[in-house]
């Protein structure tokens, strides 16, 4: 039997549904709910203390509200999250932990080799978000987001970008393709997982993507 949701979690779900409404399906409310569910599952496997579950659940739910890809100025914005957590009366130490997770968990920060504390809560939420970026759902999300930005599906004349910096990765009008995103990010995530549970799950999803891309290129080249 599922545990009863707390009031703040119920309100967070409503906030997500309202603020992420109208986004493409790669970063919508359903994505946030999936990340929350995977994070709680990973937390159980990693034997996370019950006192930390609220931090994990709220960080997972709220992590993409201020995603830079959907803000007016293409800059990360946690204003709505900060206001929500404060108005709900969450104690300061929990607010700080949740915001620290959200601000530092992105792939762009790892590309930048940014240093921050890898608490178990952080690792669980980050792994959950990355698991949703790979495998069958990850492939679907990749094509949905790329299509929403009118990115070319594949062009053998446009190679994947190498030695990505944070600036290059977040460049709004970078010349790339949807298939290149597999090489620039998705195939790298398996080796960036931080929890044992996340690493185990990533293996299967990673293999699925490898098989998919082999089939894609066979069909593209007329060999299948």
TrEMBL record:
InterPro entries noted in UniProt: HD/PDEase_dom, HD_domain
One Pfam entry name: HD
Domain HD/PDEase positions: 24-143
Protein name, UniProt field: HD/PDEase domain-containing protein
